[in-house]
Amino acid sequence: MLAAVAPITIEAIESARSRIKDTILRTPLVRLQTGDELEIYIKLENLQPINSFKLRGAANAVAMLSPSARAGGVWTISAGNAGQGVAYAARAMGVPCTVVTIETAPDTKVERMRALGARIVKAPFDACWDAMEQRAFPGVAGTFVHPFDDDDFIAGNATMGFEIVEDLPNVAAVVTAIGGGGLVTGVATAVRARKPNVRVFGAEPETAAPAALSFSRNEASVFEGWHASFVDGAGGKSVFPRMWERMRGVVDGSIVVTLDETKHAMRVIAEKARVIAEGAGALSVAAALSGKAGAGPIVAVISGGNIELSTFAELVGAVSS
After folding, report:
1. Which residues contact 196 (CB under 8 A, 6 or more apart)?
2. How far apart are CA 220 and CA 216, in angstroms?
3. Nearest to 188 by CA among 177, 199, 172
4. CB-based contacts of 35: which residues, under 8 Å, 6+ apart?
5. Is pLDDT above 90 for 80?
6. Nearest in space to 243 (alpha carbons), one of 265, 274, 284, 215
7. What number of other Cβ atoms are within 10 A of residue 212's Cβ?
8. Which of 52, 95, 112, 224 is most enclosed, with most CB atoms within 10 A?
9. Among 231, 181, 186, 187, which residue's Cα sits nearest to residue 211?
10. What would the pLDDT profile of 188-212 be if each residue is shown by its tens digit?
11. Do 108 and 152 touch, CB atoms closer than 8 A?
12. Rounded to an integer, what distance in angstroms lies between the CA atom of residue 282 and that of residue 10?
């Protein structure tokens, strides 16, 4: 029986911050020089040791497991970034790790998980999505570390929110990608604990935008038009009811962007800041550039940079600057 959904406490976030400080990088916050009236700053989570914010939550979640829970190994479900985070944290503690990964996950992410010592089990997207809700997968044993619906994982993600308000006290809005919802929930909880008037938005691709649909309906919803794209690290087929309970009280909504807008944002980030963002990592900037998050100051979280360089070059080369 799962525990009822409850708000992540400030004490839990502070404890997580202390617990993971020697594992994660306090990432820089830099101004994105767009040449227009929008005041956008980017939070460079792509600079984490695994090039993704997921290390924050994974490091905290694995550290919080009891010795007996770690003894049989840990496993998670991931398109790549959460898997790298859990594998990284597990390896540091000498704990065996298995990752059930979507069969269409980019080779670069799969190989990096293997390099971190993870055993890889590939499965179709639907099977992985169902397994995240059921918290079980045939043939895989050990302690399950949920990649987003987990208090300790969310508390780890939330540590980023404290950094944002410390580094930019006059922040007006924060935008993060939404996949399962653990990032935006954690960041929103921490930011609003310090700055209650800051608006927090998710960002989703047009091909996978269940959170925007859920906010429009005021209930957890399934996105019937889902299809895979190069934005593999965000955008699910649905918002889980438990995650809707977590998000709806602290997140203002989700901004939907087109795939072309996402490619354009990837190019802008590369040209103006010399930063490589994967598709999911650029969603926040695409949303900020749309003007739907306000004029700023806006913090757009670059959630990850795990993308094949050839794929990145192809995508950004297909759009004008």
Report:
1. none
2. 10
3. 199
4. none
5. no
6. 215
7. 21
8. 52
9. 181
10. 999 999 999 999 999 999 999 999 9
11. no
12. 28
- Using the structure block, give the residue that is written with the tokens 């700053």: 41
Q: How many helices (H) and strands (E) does the chain have?
A: 13, 10
Q: In what order do the strands lie in the sheet with 40-44?
A: 29-32, 40-44, 298-302, 173-177, 199-205, 253-257
Same fold, 10-52+151-317 and 55-144: yes
Per domain, the residue ranges of the chain are 10-52+151-317, 55-144
The distance in angstroms from the start CA to the end CA of the chain is 51
Residue 135 is encoded by which pair of tokens? 């918290």
Please identify which residue in the block is written with the tokens 């000498």.
94
Helix 10-20 vs helix 151-167: crossing angle, to nearest 10: 90
Strand order in the sheet with 119-123: 119-123, 97-102, 74-78, 143-144
Domain 55-144 has CATH 3.30.70.1250: no
DSSP state of 294: -
Q: Taking the domain 10-52+151-317, which CATH number applies?
A: 3.40.50.1100
| Amino acid making up residue 2 | L
